Each structure stands twice: as structure tokens, then as C-alpha cells.
Inverse folding.
């Protein structure tokens, strides 16, 4: 008689948390977190010290237990070396955990959608190099939540949408501002001077500015005078439309 062999397909899950408002996590992401034994969660560390983990706070508010949450320090600085080391460590720790405990359910959380300018890309490559499989649970990206707070269409009819991740060449910026399309700019702190200069050079465009959307310190304005006075944090998004 042939023996039936049980094959356990182990999988490390990248779970999208959405933009910050706990109600904007998907049911699938929440179920995956509830079922997870280990949830790797970043704690931002800046020159000012260790910050509270917004991701951990949000999960706790949704009933995820403290013992499921595995915090890891994530250095926040322009120099990406510290962050890459942190991601390497998470990838190694999660892969080792999966090999030591094949039945354990492991999740790695990402803000917004884990497939959109996400640290998951790098962590995922390392995990796959270790020979393990990963699965992405998609979520609401921050720029979609920003437009939701604004109301109306991000793009409609023939309009196109360009997303710029804070940095672009001079030619790319000019092409974006001169187009009739919607421009979404992420990582506001990387391009504060460019945005402020574009606001004065392209006064016919509509300018919308968002900080910490869905979080207690959310700030939103569509007044260019307010945007010009603002110091842009990393967690800011600018949406510019032609209507
Ligand atoms: N995966 C994320 C994007 C990560 S890149 C997503 O799907 O949205 C990091 C950038 O996302 C930040 O610099 C900021 O521009 C934006 N961001 C993420 N969450 C945000 C929030 N709650 N409010 C404003 N911007 C946010």
C-alpha cells in the first residue's frame, strides 16, 4: 500500500495594514493576522530615539495579542543602510523561525499596500533566496486613502495618473506639471522644495496636501498658502490635479 505523504506548504505572509485607519484593513489581512503565531512589526527609530510602533498600536486596537507581535527596530534616515540591515535581519529571523517551526504561521506587516513602494520587496527577495515561499495580502495604499478623504475621482475619463516617489529628474518633474494629468507625489520630505516651487510656477493646478492620513495627527489642506508654510514630514503625500 502506498504511503500518503503529508506535504506542508509553508508560506510567509506579507500582510498589508492599510494607511493607518484600523477600519481600512481588509478582512483577509485581519484574518491572516489573527491566525499568525509571529507577526514581524517595525518600530521606527530616529535620531530622537525609539518611536511607538503605529503598526503595533493599530493591530492591538484590532484585538491582535501582544505575544503575537515581534517588534524589530527600523532606523529612519536618508541613508538606507540601517534600514536594509534591519530588513535583512527580519528576513533571516523569519526564515529561521519557519525552518525551526514548520507549522508556525508567520506574517510580516507593511503599511498601506505591501506591493506598492514597500519594504516587503526587499525582505521578500531575501526570504525567497532562503528557499521559502511568500504570499502577499494586498491592502489600501495611502494615496487612495488620501483621495478618499478629499472626495471625488483621483482620475476620470481619459486622465492618467503618475506617481512620483519623492525623487525624479528635472525633466520628469516638468513633464508631470505640464501634463493635464493627476500627479501623486509620495515621500514629501524628499521633494519639499520642488513641490513648493511648482505650486508657484503652476498656479492653475489644484494642490492637495496630506500628512499621516487615517492617524490621530492627520493633517489635510488644499490651501496653497498653508502648503507653502508647512514642513513636509516623510509621511506626506501631495496630489495635484488639473481640475
Ligand atoms: N506601501 C505604502 C507606501 C510606502 S512608501 C502604501 O501603499 O501607501 C512610504 C510613503 O507612503 C510615505 O513617504 C508617504 O508618502 C506614504 N504614506 C504611507 N502612509 C501614509 C499616511 N498614512 N499618510 C500619508 N502618507 C503616507
Amino acid at each position: 500500500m502506498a504511503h500518503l505523504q503529508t506535504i506542508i506548504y509553508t508560506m510567509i505572509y506579507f500582510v498589508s495594514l492599510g494607511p493607518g485607519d484600523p477600519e481600512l484593513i481588509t478582512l483577509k489581512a485581519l484574518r491572516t493576522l489573527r491566525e499568525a503565531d509571529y507577526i514581524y512589526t517595525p518600530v521606527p527609530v530616529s535620531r530622537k530615539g525609539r518611536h511607538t510602533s503605529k503598526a503595533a498600536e493599530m493591530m492591538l486596537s484590532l484585538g491582535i495579542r501582544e505575544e503575537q507581535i515581534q517588534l524589530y527596530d527600523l532606523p529612519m534616515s536618508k541613508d538606507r543602510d540601517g534600514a536594509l540591515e534591519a530588513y535583512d535581519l527580519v528576513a533571516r529571523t523569519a526564515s529561521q523561525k519557519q525552518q525551526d517551526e514548520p507549522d508556525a504561521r508567520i506574517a510580516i506587516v507593511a503599511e498601506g499596500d505591501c506591493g506598492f513602494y514597500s519594504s516587503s520587496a526587499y525582505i521578500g527577495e531575501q526570504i525567497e533566496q532562503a528557499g521559502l515561499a511568500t504570499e502577499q495580502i494586498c491592502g489600501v495604499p495611502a494615496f487612495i486613502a488620501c483621495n478618499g478623504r478629499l472626495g471625488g475621482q483621483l482620475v476620470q475619463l481619459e486622465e492618467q495618473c503618475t506617481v512620483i516617489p519623492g525623487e525624479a529628474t528635472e525633466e520628469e518633474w516638468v513633464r508631470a506639471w505640464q501634463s493635464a494629468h493627476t500627479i501623486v507625489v509620495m515621500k514629501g520630505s524628499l521633494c519639499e522644495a520642488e513641490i513648493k516651487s511648482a505650486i508657484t510656477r503652476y498656479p492653475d493646478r489644484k494642490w492637495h496636501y496630506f500628512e499621516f492620513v487615517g492617524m490621530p495627527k492627520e493633517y489635510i489642506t488644499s490651501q496653497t498658502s498653508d502648503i507653502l508654510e508647512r514642513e513636509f514630514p516623510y509621511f506626506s503625500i501631495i496630489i495635484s490635479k488639473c481640475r
